[in-house]
Design goal:
The complex is a heterodimer of chains A (252) and B (429).
Chain A lengths: L1 E10 L2 E11 L4 E5 L6 H9 L5 E9 L2 E2 L5 H7 L1 E4 L6 E5 H15 L7 H14 L10 E2 L5 H15 L3 E5 L7 H14 L5 E6 L12 E6 L2 E6 L1 H10 L2 H10 L1
Parallel strand pairs in A: 3-10, 3-11, 6-9, 9-10
Antiparallel strand pairs in A: 1-2, 1-4, 4-5, 7-8, 11-12
Chain B lengths: L15 H14 L15 H4 L15 H4 L10 E6 L2 E2 L12 E4 H7 L2 H6 L10 H9 L4 E5 L9 E7 L6 E3 L2 E6 L4 E10 L6 E11 L4 E8 L5 E11 L4 E8 L4 E10 L5 E10 L4 E10 L5 E10 L4 E10 L7 E10 L5 E10 L5 E9 L3 H8 L5 H17 L5 H14 L9
Parallel strand pairs in B: 1-5, 4-7, 5-8, 6-9, 7-9, 8-10, 9-11, 10-12, 11-13, 12-14, 13-15, 14-16, 15-17, 16-18, 17-19, 18-20
Antiparallel strand pairs in B: 1-2, 3-4
Helix pairs in contact in B: 1-6, 7-8
């Protein structure tokens, strides 16, 4: 589904990604772990199409289409979804209006008619139940005055409504208390199927207790330096990242 | 005098003196130039150098279907329609009721008490040559008189059409709106040219008097065609506890200048001034507002938002004057702008003159561009660039839209704005 080959990127002349290779297949959950500044968020933003980075080399293919050629909205239409680490507050645009526009613009791009209002409201109700959200939430301005947990839940709500093929959860666990974490993880698990894939970006093991990864990658200084199964996440939790740095130094 | 020849034999009427003095003032002052501080950023010269005709087209008849789209027709309303400055009884809908809506000419001719008391008494700035010109030529316009304790049951639409013609045309509507004690009225005003081949210059003056506890809302839809220019002067006097709101929605027209002046004459009155400017091409909109807190305990709220695309230019000059005795004044003023291109510009000048010491006054002005993070957020959810920008602009102006209390008008304005932003999204659900 997703194939990233030797991806290099920099911002304001500073190289952040130094040759990333990553392959994610339908039905898989991948976790990318790593300390602050290792390039995890840059990678997810570049996949989603943020244009403030200079991509200096490599390629990103999504179902064999070259993502680098596409606008963010076109990537979304193909089924790429990024749950933002810091969702943006947009006063004056209600959650309902935002999601309605988002769904109908995606349908328009696929040559479909707008979703009938009744159907959309029904779907919203179901997905809100899944995420144990209050209905009052729909009329509020997008993310305005939301708590950290509400913002993250709203991201997963959007994911539930848009039903993407590839969902990238960028530090969705930060700012969540233990109950919210369980609800959000539960939501993600229910949306998981053989046809879609999830990339979970996180510092900590705790989200991975709920969303069990098939593959765990460790990112350090702009490179994926180690890949393993879910036990790698426990090892990192226990021992931190220093032993990997050491291992690397020894191989070099 | 020659100018009076066209005034339908009103030369001998008691307003003759007022007109004659106004004409002398206009002659002495001439059209304002950019040397005048109040006109520094707006040049009337491209308009005033033209050779205008003043005479209405005699052989033009408009039918309701021709003009329906310019009216907020989705709601039941009273309508006063003028064609080339002449009252059209054919297109108007006037109630037979306990309040008066009609043509100013009737009032002037009869020299009613209302005319004697208010005509040219509210808009009386001796240095304003355009008001003087309007006063000296004003023949027709709306006269709205709401007696004490009457709440008008439907909005009143005041619509001024200029017919299709070859020659450039100058029209000068003059309105007088007098709202009695504890009376209430909502008005919608629109100036519309039907002449895409020639220039129409409208020099409109509206005087509003709000007596004690009166409640008045006036919405100005400025969405004229590119061959039109408008100078719209509205002067308001408010007695105690009255509440007057004026919303100005400047979306069309080549050149628009709004002069809006409020004076508080009684305590505990409230004035609300709001506006949205959404311009492209080489459009120019200039908002000049003055709020004169002449007495204590009054409140004024002012919120103007501007969105400027292509080579458009905006001006905001908002003066708030708090006189020495006007203690406990609350005055709030905000002007926010978004520039969508490097070639669009805005000159914003808040002007506070505070002579009292126990007051709450604030003002602010922002000029910015669209938030790129917000834009990326919307786009990453599948919303295309143009639609995403439109949503952000919609959000930007949203708090001004909230001041529109007539739902059909609210929807109409949103529709015009969506059209202007070239998107087919409905901003509501």
């Amino acid at each position: 589904m997703l194939k990233i080959d030797q991806l290099k990127a920099s911002i304001e002349g500073k190289e952040i990604l130094k040759g990333i290779n990553l392959e994610v297949n339908a039905g898989e959950v991948h976790a990318i772990m790593g300390p602050n500044g290792s390039g995890k968020s840059t990678l997810s933003n570049i996949i989603a199409g943020r244009d403030e980075y200079d991509v200096t080399g490599g390629s990103i293919l999504f179902n064999k289409e070259d993502l680098m050629e596409l606008e963010p909205e076109e990537r979304a239409h193909l089924g790429v979804f990024l749950s933002f680490q810091y969702p943006i507050e947009i006063p004056g645009v209600s959650v309902t209006n935002f999601i309605k526009t988002s769904i109908n613009e995606t349908r328009k791009a696929k040559g479909l008619d707008p979703m009938p209002a009744k159907e959309m409201l029904k779907m919203m109700r179901e997905k809100m139940e899944l995420l144990e959200m209050d209905r009052k939430f729909l009329n509020r301005s997008l993310n305005e005055g939301f708590s950290g947990g509400e913002k993250k839940r709203n991201e997963i709500f959007q994911m539930a409504m848009l039903e993407p093929k590839l969902a990238i959860l960028d530090e969705t666990d930060s700012g969540l208390d233990i109950d919210a974490l369980r609800i959000v993880a539960n939501g993600v698990n229910k949306l998981k199927s053989e046809d879609n894939a999830v990339i979970v970006i996180t510092h900590y093991q705790r989200l991975l207790d709920h969303i069990i990864p098939d593959v765990v990658h460790v990112m350090l200084d702009g490179r994926i330096v180690k890949t393993g199964d879910k036990t790698l996440a426990y090892e990192l939790e226990e021992k931190g990242y220093d032993w990997i740095k050491q291992e690397l130094a020894e191989t070099v | 005098m020659a100018f009076e020849a066209g005034l339908n034999g009103q030369a001998n009427s008691p307003v003759h003196k007022i007109r004659s003095a106004a004409f002398d003032r206009f002659e002495a002052l001439g059209f304002p130039t950019q040397k005048n501080e109040d006109w520094k950023y707006s040049s009337l010269l491209p308009i005033t150098k033209r050779d205008f005709s003043f005479t209405p087209n005699k052989d033009v008849a408009l039918e309701y279907p021709d003009v329906k789209k310019y009216l907020v027709h989705e709601i039941d309303s009273y309508q006063l329609v003028f064609l080339d400055g002449v009252f059209s009884s054919w297109l108007s809908k006037i109630p037979n009721s306990n309040f008066h809506i009609g043509c100013l000419c009737d009032g002037l001719e009869k020299n009613t008490k209302t005319i004697q008391k208010y005509f040219s008494k509210i808009a009386k700035d001796p240095k304003d040559s355009l008001v003087a010109m309007n006063t000296s030529f004003a023949v027709e316009g709306a006269l709205v008189e709401i007696p004490d304790n009457v709440a008008v049951d439907k909005p009143i639409q005041l619509v001024y059409f200029s017919s299709k013609r070859e020659k450039d045309f100058l029209v000068q509507p003059r309105n007088l709106i007098v709202v009695g004690k504890n009376a209430e009225v909502q008005l919608i005003e629109r100036h519309q040219s039907l002449s895409p081949e020639s220039t129409t210059f409208t020099n409109s003056v509206t005087e509003i008097y709000a007596d004690q506890d009166a409640r008045v809302s006036l919405y100005k839809i400025q969405n004229d065609i590119p061959t039109s220019s408008l100078v719209d002067t509205t002067v308001v006097e408010q007695e105690s506890r009255s509440n007057v709101s004026i919303g100005t929605f400047s979306l069309g027209g080549q050149f628009t200048r709004n002069n809006l002046t409020f004076t508080f004459k009684g305590e505990y009155a409230e004035a609300n001034l709001s506006g949205i400017s959404l311009l492209n091409d080489r459009q120019h909109v200039d908002h000049h507002t003055i709020v004169d807190h002449a007495v204590p305990n009054c409140q004024s709220n002012e919120l103007y938002k501007g969105i400027f695309d292509e080579k458009s230019h905006g001006v905001f000059n908002g003066a708030v004057i708090v006189q020495k005795d006007a203690q406990k004044t609350n005055a709030f003023q905000q002007n926010d702008n978004v520039l969508l291109t490097d070639t669009a510009s805005i000159d914003s000048k808040p002007q506070l003159e505070i002579y009292a010491d126990d007051v709450k006054c604030s003002h602010g002005c922002t000029i910015g561009q669209l938030d790129q993070d917000a834009l990326f957020y919307l786009k990453s959810r599948g919303i295309a660039d143009r639609e995403a920008k439109a949503m952000l602009l919609y959000a930007f102006k949203h708090d001004v839209m909230e001041t529109v209390k007539i739902e059909a008008l609210y929807k109409r304005l949103n529709k015009i704005i969506a059209q202007k932003l070239n998107v087919d999204i409905d901003f509501e659900l």
